Amino acid sequence: MKNIIKIITVSLSVVLTFLSCGNDEIMGFEGKDVIYYKWAVESLNPLVLNPDYIDSTSITFAYELPEVKQLTYEIPIKVQGSVKYFDREVSVSVLSSSTAQEGVHFTLPDKVVIKADSINGYLPVTLLRTDDMKEQELSLKLKLEENENFNNNLLETNKVLNGDRLVSYTEFEIAVSDILTQPQYWPTAYLGDYSEKKLYLWAEVLEVPVPDWNKVNPQTDLTFRASASVFKQYLTIQELRGTPVLEDDGTPMTLGPYAAYL
Q1: How far is 216 from 184, CA to CA, in rounded Å?
Q2: Residue 159 has pLDDT above 70, yes or no
Q3: Quick one: angle between helices 224-240 and 196-206, nearest 10?
């Protein structure tokens, strides 16, 4: 089966006002410029009333089609200091408390740099889909280290909690899995009993991404009934051809009682 490499590019259009010289200013030690994770300082969504300052995220392959074998996630990093006319390399280490293994569950680039004439950059992490991700969530913890270009000693002024601890400016955790469970808003009346195979087939037949019905009730979508009708027709055609779609346990894939009215 052909592997598909999917890239998740996280980009934020952030409009920031100049910081005053008061107590809320983010300060670093004098000397070398300071490197930090952007979302921990400027938040993920700085223009909303209650912004999210984060130093971790969860990623699952479960809502990707089976042929998607890689995801590349780009973590924004930033420099507190001045721009330079040359590229500056950023040092990154994998913390020993990580359960994800480099070369097995993820890869990192040979170099991470802040480009010339910029104070912004990305740390790209390529996550590799593996069978054990269906059984457990793995943790990858990445630390920005001090080197000849940067310090990593940005002073903490945002007393923002992530769980029971302060958000870290220099450590970022990715929790990755391939675990798919029945969505909160699974439309049983139309699609019948839930199965992972049925959800993936829905996406394949309709040529759409695997839907995350934990966030949105599909029955509030005006196109849902039309989509369900297309899905019903597909199952019917396969049955008429003598190749009925079977669940993993060998039983025919069926729909719910409301499908009769589609």
Answers
A1: 9
A2: no
A3: 100
